[in-house]
Amino acid sequence: MEKRSMIPKNKKILVGLIILLVVVGGIIIRSNKPSIDQSIIKESAFIPYPPQYNYRQTKNDCGPFNVAAVVRALKKQDFDSRSFVKKIGWRLLNNYTLPWGLENQLEENGIKIEKPRFDLLTDGEKIVLVRQHLSLGKPIIMLGEQDNYQHYLTLLGFNAAADEYYVYNSLQTVLSEDRNMTTDKNGSFPGNTTLNSDELLAFWSRGGMYGLWKWYGLVGSL
User: Fold this and answer.
1) DSSP states of 84-125 as a string?
2) Which of 14, 158, 176, 213 has its CA 20 to 30 A from that of 193?
3) Cα(91)–Cα(61) distance, rounded to whole angstroms?
4) What is the pTM (predicted TM-score) of this model?
5) Is the distance from CB of 111 to CB of 220 less than 8 angstroms?
6) In the prediction, which pLDDT does 9 show?
7) pLDDT average, residue stretch 96-114
């Protein structure tokens, strides 16, 4: 989980200018509204993610912990989240991770990434496109806000009839008998917690850094 905090003024201005230049360039390049193909979308879809993968993050490390979760989910084997913490780039002075750090680290681990322009869609279309990617077995890292902190979490499945989305949240309640793990509220479903559409959109709508990365969703695949 990542809390907004003060950065020395001169460094904050420099970081802001770099972000603005890169993001404006990215928007120009990828300004098309994402396409939706209803024929792809299933009634439910699940990316396997067993309870033993529900690791509890270390301080300010939700970025690399979610990268590790996506790599585990797609490669179907365990990986040490702390090794991702040591290697991830694009970290600020307080170790908060900008989205570029997640994107680069996923690609370094052989994961293809997509960054759909969810911000160009209505709320209903956002949900449909989320289901489309999950139907194709592609997990999604989202940037939102939890308890007034900026936070990443990973979507691993959904059930349309039940209006449920199965999520790995690295800040889920710590497991009392093993503080490196979280509790698991999902049972046989992937991840460790469940959100409905309204809860998912509420979390997601409050995401963003420096006024940028609104409705950020990072899609991974092999």
Assistant:
1) HHHH---B-TT--B-HHHHHHHHHHTT-EEE---GGGS-HHH
2) 213
3) 10
4) 0.89
5) yes
6) 53
7) 98
